[in-house]
Design brief:
The complex is a heterodimer of chains A (274) and B (293). Chain A starts with 9 loop residues before the first helix and ends in an 8-residue tail after the last helix. By secondary structure, chain A is α/β, with parallel strands linked by helices. Chain A is built from nine helices and nine strands. Residues 1-5 of chain A have low confidence and may be disordered. In chain A, strand 7 and strand 8 form a beta hairpin. Chain A folds into two domains: 10-146 and 207-266, Alpha/Beta hydrolase fold, catalytic domain (Rossmann fold); 148-206, no CATH class. Helices cover 39% and strands 18% of the residues of chain A. In chain B, helix 8 (246-251) links the parallel strand 7 (223-227) and strand 8 (260-264). Classes of the chains: A alpha/beta (274), B alpha/beta (293). At the A-B interface, strand 1, strand 2, helix 2 and helix 5 of A face helix 2 of B.
């Protein structure tokens, strides 16, 4: 049923996990190496609580890009996943700085090829901010909200639903109860992460740069290619709403193929692979 | 990029042409005088819970592995093929695959490889939910497994009663007072049926898994089980009492009096990833490891 006994393809053997030192932490990274890459892509994944559901599909996307000749670097936010750092001390600015550090590292690799930032959900906001500040040659945003507070709100709502079923009726709380606590300066534990009131406060103003919000044309504003892709529930588990155990193996060629093609065509690089 | 930090190292297990990526938490024990203390020769190996990457939900796996390593037990977290960073394909029905023991062969062979490559005397396998299922199957196939830590293990196969009812009817039954009465009556009937059948396994029992449990338990392996509070009857405040008590059944198989340690953790959810859950699992596991290894 599984391919556990199949030999690993050479491209998989070229995947290099490592720790990337940044100020006060080490970011967990996986570099999907490619010989003579046509471009390099930095993948900026979703918010902490979405990481575990989207992880496999995100890795599949990295492997899809590698097969097309792109070198890919993916990573965990500091304080999240395999990266070190304390989540409750994190800020959106620190996470944006990490995007700059990793993109700079990619740019300095031996072959001078274009660098693309690709963000999913909150990662889209981080990538967009770095792009706005001059980073990278192109930008792709998948399912990126207009501000970080929307990510936190929907994450909390998603988490609170099943949790309530464990509690007697008189102990159940609405999401608004937790929003109020955060607004009052208290921290709230969501899906195993301690959300600080400061993170909540920052999320209200951490938004997409104005040139990227409708009706503006970001590609025209930046004079660099930008692609914005809204994703619906059919994109689960890449986005919220998946049924664990049944949707991990979905076919995402409908999303992967046009997006890798867009990167290649917008940067005028010859795409490889099947 | 580096692969080695002071307390962690990124490692792979590549035997048999199957490459697993993982994280090794180095055992470090500080004696009261500040000197390095002795570390243990038993490792703790974490498995994926269904498709969750090796860090587990809310990075609770990282937290526990770090804690055990600080107590002298080297801890290893691996992604099985097709999960997390490890390459491989997975079946469309991952839950069914896991429940049928689909990971058993690879997990047990990787336990052997880990024990040999690291010079360990054995490992304690740590599994949450579907990961607990895999741990049981793997333990039944290798002698290198010296103990099990299981979090919210389940011994039944999923039943699809709800989808056969109209969604509107389900919603009505969940929200209305009459529906609550009907559900309570249904629970009483099930409770009565359960009392009558006593030790007979229900129709939805995962018999293959239970036969492996019997095999593992008969070898005398120490087993620590964590469980979360059962969900209350929807719309009410009483806990559901009608379900077959698989844990009581499984623990009745013990070959010695202290073989099973069961800990019910309050104030947490199924993931055990909040502060209360993490702390309780950590403390009870460390105490259990100290008593047994």
């Amino acid at each position: 049923m599984s391919t556990q006994t199949r030999t690993n393809p050479a491209s998989v053997l070229a995947e290099c996990p490592g720790y990337f030192p940044v100020s006060g932490a080490h970011l967990y990274t996986v570099l999907h190496r490619v010989e003579n890459p046509i471009a390099r892509v930095l993948l900026v994944g979703p918010f902490a609580s979405e990481r575990h559901t989207s992880y496999r599909t995100w890795v599949q996307w990295a492997r899809h890009l590698t097969a097309k000749g792109f070198e890919v670097l993916r990573y965990d936010y500091r304080g999240v996943g395999e990266s070190t750092g304390t989540f409750e001390e994190m800020t959106f600015e620190a996470w944006t700085d990490d995007v700059h550090c990793l993109a700079a590292w990619l740019r300095k690799r031996e072959r001078n090829v274009p660098v693309i930032l690709h963000g999913l959900e909150l990662g889209g906001l981080l990538a967009a901010r770095a792009f706005h500040e001059g980073e990278a040659d192109a930008l792709i945003l998948w399912s990126t909200p207009t501000d970080a507070n929307k990510v936190l709100r929907s994450g909390l709502q998603q988490w609170i639903g099943p949790l309530q079923l464990l509690k007697p009726e008189d102990e159940r709380k609405l999401p608004s109860h937790y929003f109020r606590l955060l607004e009052e300066g208290k921290s709230v534990e969501v899906a195993g992460y301690e959300w600080s009131a400061e993170l909540w406060r920052q999320s209200l103003s951490f938004a997409l740069p104005a040139p990227m919000t409708p009706p503006n044309d970001p590609a025209e504003s930046y004079k660099r290619p930008v692609r914005v892709v809204p994703l619906g529930k059919n994109a689960a588990p890449l986005v919220k709403g998946a049924v664990p155990g049944y949707e991990e193996n979905k076919d995402f060629s409908w999303l992967f193929d046009p997006n890798s093609h867009w990167i290649a065509s917008s940067l005028s690089v010859p795409v490889g692979g099947a | 990029m580096i692969s080695n930090l002071e307390t962690r190292e990124l490692i792979t297990l590549g035997g048999g042409g199957v490459l697993l990526h993982g994280t090794y938490h180095k055992a470090t024990v500080e004696a009261p005088n500040g000197a390095a203390g002795s570390t243990k020769n038993i490792g703790v190996m974490f498995l994926n819970a269904l498709s969750t990457p090796r860090s587990l939900i809310g990075e609770s796996g990282v937290y526990w592995a770090t804690s055990f390593a600080a107590r002298g037990y080297p801890a290893f977290r691996f992604d099985l093929p097709g999960l997390g960073d490890s390459y491989g394909e997975i079946p469309n029905d991952l839950l069914k695959f896991t429940n049928e023991g689909g990971w058993a062969t690879i997990a047990s062979s990787k336990v052997k490889e880990l024990v040999q490559s690291r010079g360990l005397s054995g490992v304690v396998m740590f599994g949450h939910c579907a990961g607990a299922t895999t741990a049981i199957y793997a333990a039944s196939e290798c002698t290198e497994c010296r103990g099990l830590i299981l979090m919210d293990p389940y011994f039944n196969l999923p039943r699809s009663i709800t989808p056969s009812l109209r969604p509107g009817l389900v919603l009505w039954a969940r929200r209305s007072r009459t529906g609550a009465l009907l559900r309570a009556s249904y629970d009483r009937v099930r409770e009565l049926r359960g009392a009558l059948r006593k030790e007979t396994l229900p129709a939805n029992a995962n018999l293959n898994l239970i036969s492996r449990v019997k095999q593992v338990v008969s070898s005398g392996l120490p087993i620590l089980i964590f469980r979360t509070p059962q969900p209350p009857v929807l719309g009410g405040t009483k806990l559901r009492a009608a379900d077959f008590d698989y844990l009581a059944y499984v623990t009745s198989l013990a070959v010695r009096s202290n073989q099973f340690t069961i800990k019910a953790i309050e104030d947490t959810d199924h993931s055990f990833s909040n502060r209360a859950g993490r702390m309780a699992v950590r403390q009870h596991s460390e105490a259990w490891l100290g008593e047994n290894f």
